[in-house]
């Protein structure tokens, strides 16, 4: 049976000031925007004094959504361009008392049967699929780099005094550095976007137990925020959950692959994505003219067909990323099996 064109989604989000932030200022922000063929979802964790972090996070999400809606073209290019617009919105306002402000940004674009993730900073994306929890993003932070180098364990990083020091954020320079990659989605997937106010205090194993509960996205977001506050709530907390009830057909563009070298400058990403779009266009043109030639000159269909096949194979071999197979969901250490009985169900606080 052919997959439907568009997915069926529900989402829920909650942001909370936490229990230890002075002045009750919440520097987190979240976005859930319905689109004709999916949705745009994002979380941002602002930084800076004098309420600068709150301003930065909201500026970034406003600019992200507006720039995406105003642009045209393939979704990966639109999303990368929108992240750059968000970066410039923060940078332009970082003057006077707001000098030095910035924000993380984690965006997930659901486009038909695919999810595109754009990641800057240490907010995290997780995917619950088939009873396993996959961490989709790696933190752009000093302690995360020490963990990757083997100089620190995850538990040590969780309690380190520099755990909140990010190595990449919006507003730091004119060209944003980001990670951009895509994966195929399927019915039953549950996607979590969260700030480090949640992931920094609630373990991946505990997240797995809570996300595995058969509750609505809104109720699950409340459980996650409660769990972070139960651990002391040292930071602002944001949880955004998207449930995929029905997948859609994969889009016609090439899904950006996951890179191993971390965040790269946006102009390099845009150049690669536009190159992918050109190759896809050339493939379609070669296939079209091959079929047209066979129909118009049937007596020469064999040499025309062979020539077209050779051209198609040449283009595909010359551009390895043409295949749209989704990237791996993460290393084995980032995958946890579901153990739903480990955490008791508790009532949500009002």
TrEMBL record:
Coiled coil: none annotated. This is Serine/threonine protein phosphatase. It comes from Deinococcus arcticus. One of its GO terms (molecular function) is protein serine/threonine phosphatase activity. Residues 10-244 form the PPM-type phosphatase domain. CDD domains: PP2Cc. Gene3D superfamilies: PPM-type phosphatase domain. The chain crosses the membrane at residues 278-297, 304-322. The keyword Transmembrane helix applies.
